[in-house]
Specification:
The complex is a heterodimer of chains A (about 325) and B (about 550). Chain A is an alpha+beta fold and about 325 residues long. Chain A is about 40% helix and about 20% strand. Chain B is about 65% helix and about 0% strand. In chain B, α2 packs antiparallel against α15 and α14 packs antiparallel against α15. Classes of the chains: A alpha+beta (about 325), B mainly alpha (about 550).
Amino acid sequence: MDRLTAYLFPEQVSTFAQDIDNLFYFIFYASIALLAIVTFGMIYLAIKYRFKKNDEVRLTSSIDHNSILESSFVIIPLILVSITFVWGIKSYLNMVTVPNDAIEMKITGQSWYWTWDYPDGGPSNVFSTAEPLVLPVNTPIKIVLSSTDVLHSFYIPVMRAKMDVLPNRYNVMWFDAEKVGEYSIFCTEYCGTQHSQMSGTVKIVPIKVYEKWLTEAGSEDDDLPLDELGAKLYTNKACITCHTLDGSALVGPSYLQTSQMWGQERVFDDGNSATIDDNYIRNSILEPQSQIVAGYQGVMPTYQGVLNDRELDALIAFLKTLKEDSEI
Amino acid sequence: MSDNHQNNYLTYPKGIMSWLLTLDHKRIGLMYLFGGMFFFFLAGAIALIMRYVLATPEADFITNDQYNSMYTLHGAIMIFLFIIPAIPGALGNILLPLMLGARDVAFPRLNLFSFYLYSLGAVFVIYTILAGGVDTGWTFYTPYSTTSTTNVIPMTLGIFIIGFSSILTGLNFIATIHKMRIKGLTWYKLPLFVWALYGTSLVQITATPVIAITMVLLILERLLGIGIFDPALGGDPVLFQHFFWFYSHPAVYIMILPAFGIISEIIPVHSRKKVWGYKFIAYSTLSIAFIGFLVWGHHMFTSGQSVFSQIVFSFITYFVGIPTGIKIFSWMLTMYRGQVSFTPPMLYALSFLFLFTIGGLTGIFLGAVALDIHLHDTYFVVAHFHYVMQGGTIVAFLGGLHHWWPKSFGTMYNQTIANICAIGVFIGFNGTFFPQFLLGLRGMPRRYATYDNLGSEALVEQYAATHSYSTFWSGILGLAIFISVVNLLWSLRKNNKLDPGTNPWGALTMEWTHTTSPPHPHNFEEEPVLTHGPYDYDKVLVKPTLKRK
């Protein structure tokens, strides 16, 4: 069974994973039995009563019912689905009953990354592109989910947990990880161009490590020079998902192109235009919908409240360096 | 039976206008058939390109946007332009009046109008493709569909129009079944295909208006900014999901019930045996049609609906399984003490039994809420509904096409090639879709253009191995279907006509025993008189004949 489970499923990490996999096995073996009855019954009947070469075409039997057989068609499946239903609901109730001592996290989905907000004292606005979701082992975690744009769905296969992420209400999920390690997170509700890139990782660590990490995370950035901090933010804050550095257009214009056009006019899809300068960049980050570059979709979320002033300066400084780098 | 060309609906009357303005249900059925097959091949070709791209983790020669557009078009075209109209529109139209002993459907002009609505909808869909596609998924979930810059409006408008074609066909069939039966043809003497069409039609006229309204609301929201589904405008995206699945779950039964009807015809004929449990099959059709309306919430187990709703929808979902199980066992037992011939239609029917059973049983996994949460929106779901829609409906459709081909065209295809293709479809299908159950169990999400960025190299390799296996077999599947259709068309060559009196399977339903192949333009040369029931293989002996002219 263990080898089969290792073959069929991702690792069992959450407390309820094993129960769910066992429910799978119950349905699986019952299904194999039913499928075997249909398949072998079908093959047996088809071969036994096949029309042979020398047979005469003749009138056949008028038998077309058998009360005992027919009631068993109803009763046996009814018993099997009743067990499945009760088991499915019992496990489900377990999955929605959040323990009182759970640590509460806020996770936000936006196209196309996640942001983690830790409870009191921990870092906020950590992007999935920057850091894994660091969580303690053997501790119930309650996650409150919402979206800033379209629908997403937050899925951690090893936890057997998944919940849709909606823009207009909060959805809740919880799990309690039993093993330390790094595991994948997927988006499973289609959300546009980079849907398949909207992944992340969850890092389950011992409780002591988690507590130490909570107090230290995010403090090392203060010492970096502006352009280096900008380069880091470019990846960490998910700019990389839509803006390239090599001049090719992705979902948004390439940073290199913007850098090379520094001081020139840029035309927007409403016919207006503006000079590319520090203010233009700042405005594009904080109010992206106000000036959509002609030829692109206006899908960028606002970074208001996500980046502080120093971080904005850093991104602008980083963008300016790109032009020089490309000329070397 | 005379050899006059006026006795053949294919050759009389002549001229292109006689086809475009025809009121003959058989000609309208054929136009649906060729229209549907065109879109089947189009959407099938798109599927093969997607499988090729999915064989490796990166998107090889297409962009993510192109992939997203392709999976949307594949789903929408297969569902709205092929599977939903194909069996009722094509086989249903050709056969229903013949099975009832009627001259035509109840409203022949309405029938032609339905076909033109279908064609108009198809024009919108083709426009969508030419204008650059649409990338929302066939489910059009809001608010993505209200904000996407692709061609959402032409596509949804096309679906809106095709919906009316579906409603009017359903209406027409219900009226026909109630009013056009010949004397003595009581409800329990109807062929089970007619029962299946009746159940389908009921669902069509009751559920389709809901999708039509939903599509109109979506269009209004995009055009006028009325806030119904988009939270930015004060709407609720989950409301859209309720509306959408309130139609689209019953639509699953619009797609599968006619297939049940075909299987209920093929197995008795090719087993030369009275069908097992006639009333059980007939009533299970109606109960599936009814229960199908009450289970839409199982598409939304991860949407955050209330715990109470989850439990109720899970509970009712299992009740679809019971009548379906009854049907499968009844079809199997029909062969008991019969004379089973391994003809192409029968091979397709036996494939159907196996594939549809897997499709149905995997639905039980998804009905269990706790397990569905892991499997929701993964490849497990993709595999499940392909086992139902392709392994079920399309395999049954191919079986029905081979079964009634001599009736519709008066020609016989090469049966050996057809048998090989049927086996090829079976093997290719399982090779393509069985590995996808495994992908889903391991957590691979659906609608992923690429899977190179999963946070784990081991996972990428594991998925890639399974995906490339699936891709290999999809080629075999595509080839088998292609050859089987070429084989059918090749039979239409010159000097390959069958004797009009031919009954190649020795079938007892009225379309075989009371008229010629192909039928007379008015279906029956004389007023037909009911002489025997559709499955009286214990009372009436009709030998199979296959005479060429």
